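User: For documentation purposes, I need each entry recorded in a consistent format: the amino acid sequence on its own, followed directly by the corresponding structure tokens. There are two entries in this batch. Please keep commentary to a minimum and don't merge the entries.

Assistant: Recorded as requested. Entry 1:
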Amino acid sequence: MQCAPTLDALFHKAVTALDTGDVRALADLLRAHPQLVRERLEAPGEWLRAQVGNALEDFFPRPYLLWFIAEDPVRNNTLPHNLVEIARTIIQTAQREAAHTLQEHLDYALRLVAWSWVARKCALQIALLDVLLEAGATLHETITHDALVNGNFEAAAHLVRRGAKLTLATALCLEQWHEAEQLAQTLTARDKQIALVLAALHGKAEALTKLLVLGVDLNAYSTDIYTHATALHHAVSSGVLAAVQVLVAAGADLDMKDRAWNATPLEWAEHSRGEAQA
């Protein structure tokens, strides 16, 4: 008598079908094993652990099947061209089989897709965002920051058009100067610090200039996003000299050390140069 496949083995088959764009195989699996959309993968096998490592203990814990559409964490560095159809297949099955947890599937999948630079690279990000939103995913207050942190500017702009809150950080990174000026009048110091890190991270020199006028703690460790470093560290990592110059001219502390590697902004720059030359 043959043993029933474990949930991990079923997930492996389903994710393989997703990765290869095999809609028929995936649909057959979901019909035969609807637990694939009801249950989370509590004990991932080596097939997944070898690909994503610590992400399973960090931002990709006990994943639902739908979360794999984002390719974040990166496993293959690519996505099948028919991924929207695959996403709909999983969502439709979850609507029938896992209605009580469907919101959790959708909401976090939206964040993962917003983060995903692979979805952007494969020109699938906007369509995936729309599929998830049409299925009922919630636009949480800082969803645009999830897009911006990985440089997904088109996704951030699209999410605003779909009803996401326009934050100061988003307005500045999208160069919506008038809206940024209006928002700055009512926002907290923390909102401004978050805008500072996102603008620095992407080398947005003009946005940084406008933020400095509004008043920010230039030498504070970043708030909420990459909290191990200062704005100057992040500007250095962007590789945009103009952004670094804006912060240095405003008095950024050149000797501040990050909290991850105990390095100054100059040491970050030297490390980046060494990597580029390697």
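Entry 2:
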Amino acid sequence: GEASLSDKGSVFQTGGGGTNFEQAVQTAFVVTLIIRGNVPCIESGELTEIGLQVKKREYETDDLLAIAKNPTATHRLLIQIKHDISFTKGNDQFKQVIKDFWQDYNNSAIFDRNRDKLIIVKSGLTKHERNHVKSLLNWAVTHATETDFIKEVERIKAKNDALEVFHEVLLMVNNNNALTDNEIWQFLRCVDVLEYDFLNEGSVDKTYFLNLIKLSRRKDSELNEVEIWDRIFARVSELNQAGGNLTIESLKNESFFHYFENEKL
């Protein structure tokens, strides 16, 4: 959703910054798919398919669906890309994302709570988000019971505040039906937050992906890594409009694929 004019993001969004950020993240995942790379949040999970704008596939969380396989299972990452979301109960974007997450999380036809992940991607985390929201989500995974988790969180006010925000927003999206500590803990175990700095001049993440393209492109390719990134980015823009998807097989039909050293991949 676009921000209203009163939001500080409006000028930026009118200039397409939000869209550019979303497409840069999607482009990074396409590069990962081409090089048969691993995705964040899944231990040695090789990316096998991505879907863009997947509302028509029954998902509420629709910016990016990444499907990854590791030796034991197939995992789905449902990704919402919001460059400037803030993790506060007054933030409409945050409420909408949690609402969509909660719906998908409770739909067992499309979401497996033991394997799948709900991910918010942002262009930069604030100090509070990095120290407290991100570690709250890490703790949910690393603590074996909700009692251990809650006990640990309650020791630190800022973490307790972050948990309270999730609690209150979940209550809203659950039609004000009370949730147990266990239900909240189980949900947070599936949620993660990632940051990519694609909007910065001198972006570290973009350089990282350009290096991957440089290492895997054909030596006789007439395009350099920046031009190849731009071709993929343009194609992602088309796929977004069509709600398209890409698999390791279907990639072979994409014009940008022949810039890569297929034998190496």
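Summary note for entry 2:
The longest strand covers residues 74-81.
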